[in-house]
Amino acid sequence: MKTFIALIFIGFLTYANAGFVEKCTTPKTVMDNFQAPKYHKGTWYVTHVKESPNDCQILRTSQKGDTSIVEHDFTHNGINGEQHCEALPETEKRLTFTCKFGDVSIDKTVQIVMATDYDDYSLYYLCSTFTSGPDKGKTVDNYLL
Description:
It is found in: Secreted. The structure is a single chain. The chain is mostly beta strands. It has one domain: Calycin beta-barrel core domain (Lipocalin). A hairpin with a 7-residue loop joins β5 and β6. The radius of gyration is 14 Å and the shape is globular. The protein starts with 19 loop residues before the first strand and ends with a strand. The N terminus is likely disordered.
């Protein structure tokens, strides 16, 4: 599996220190002609997160047909495991991932890539709405590199 130097995302991975927002926004700069199958292959390392500057995350990404997949280590209710997120292509310049921990739906996460070279760097916006737990229905957002 190809390994990359800097970044990509998902789910709760950066939200421990983030505050809630009313709704997701669209960044002013959004990448034209984004190619999800080219982007979601291999391993990405999140190195910088706006709301949690010391958060590092290893993300395993892949494609299964048209479905983009992101997986990463995750702790939910004190249980260590893996969060699994899937998204289908959309007409807008975004992907909306449904994220689960085992059989439990955790959140819906919008990913908007602002810039990438598909190999070594990526800047993107994430916005997640929790689908279960005490924060169900609440939304958080963040920028990652």
